[in-house]
UniProtKB/TrEMBL annotation:
The DUF2154 domain, residue ranges: 43-134
Domain called Cell wall-active antibiotics response LiaF-like C-terminal: residue spans: 148-237
InterPro entries, per database record: DUF2154_N (IPR031346), LiaF-like_C (IPR024425)
Source organism superkingdom: Bacteria
Entry keyword annotation includes Signal: yes
Entry coiled-coil feature ranges: none
Keywords for the protein's UniProt record, in alphabetical order: Signal
Protein name from the UniProt record: DUF2154 domain-containing protein
Signal peptide span: 1-25
Length: 243
């Protein structure tokens, strides 16, 4: 309930800023066209913790990086500050990237651009945390070696692709606020979704209901590998679909 109340207030706030129309800034901010490159080179780490803290804009995360992490950040708001850090402890590497503001109050809409395109390595186990505020978020996680996933999204569209072949079980927590969410799931490994639905429509295409908001695929009963998802949805349409 607390989540839904917060979502409602966020929705009201967004529409106030937007004038009940497309998201536009009340006072557009000055800024130059800025690009930053992210490269975290491979080292001796045997596991990565990746933490992405994104406030607004367009966020894309995929696999296939030739290093631990690569990416490009493109933004036009000179009040944005992006901090990134990589540390190692024994055989564990930890990468954090966080969007901050140089001032306490930061307008977030209008013609200002803020897009992150991050690629992660397929060659190492990863615990991934993504905290996305007001954004369109696309997480194509196929091919990664995930050992854990947490996604917390505020306002905007969310697309998460967990289809494909997985060789190790893991648990995921997906918490969405306001907007459309699509989550693609694999056919050939076990899937279990525990859904806590809010105000909106939630559908489960190709999944079998076990009652009490629990859904599984056909492979769940026999697969040695299981992806278990606890999903809390807010306002909007959410679709879980086998792919």
């Amino acid at each position: 309930m607390r989540k839904l109340i917060l979502c409602c207030w966020v929705t009201v706030f967004v529409f106030i800023l937007a004038g009940c129309g497309p998201l536009n800034a009340i006072n557009p901010l000055p800024g130059d066209d800025m690009r930053e490159e992210i490269i975290i080179e491979k080292d001796e780490s045997q596991h990565l913790d990746v933490n992405v803290q994104f406030k607004y804009g367009d966020l894309t995360v995929t696999g296939g990086s030739s290093e631990w992490v690569t990416g490009e950040l493109h933004y036009t708001n000179d009040r944005i500050r992006i901090d990134s850090d990589y540390t190692t402890q024994r055989e564990n590497g930890a990468f954090t990237i966080e969007q901050k503001s140089k001032r306490k109050i930061n307008a977030i809409f209008g013609n200002q651009r803020n897009s992150w395109d991050l690629q992660l390595s397929n060659d190492v186990p990863i615990d991934l945390i993504v905290d996305a505020g007001v954004s369109d978020t696309a997480l194509d996680l196929r091919g990664l070696h995930l050992t854990g996933l947490v996604v917390d999204a505020g306002v905007g569209s969310v697309n998460i692709d967990l289809s494909g072949d997985w060789h190790e079980s893991f648990e995921a927590t997906i918490d969405t606020g306001v907007g459309e969410t699509t989550i693609f799931l694999p056919n050939d490994v076990g899937v279990k979704v525990i859904a806590k639905t809010g105000i909106g429509n939630t559908s489960f295409k190709g999944l079998i209901s076990q009652g009490k908001n629990v859904y599984v695929n056909e492979a769940y009963e026999t697969s040695d590998v299981v992806i278990q998802i606890v999903a809390e949805t807010g306002i909007g349409e959410t679709v879980f679909i086998l792919k």
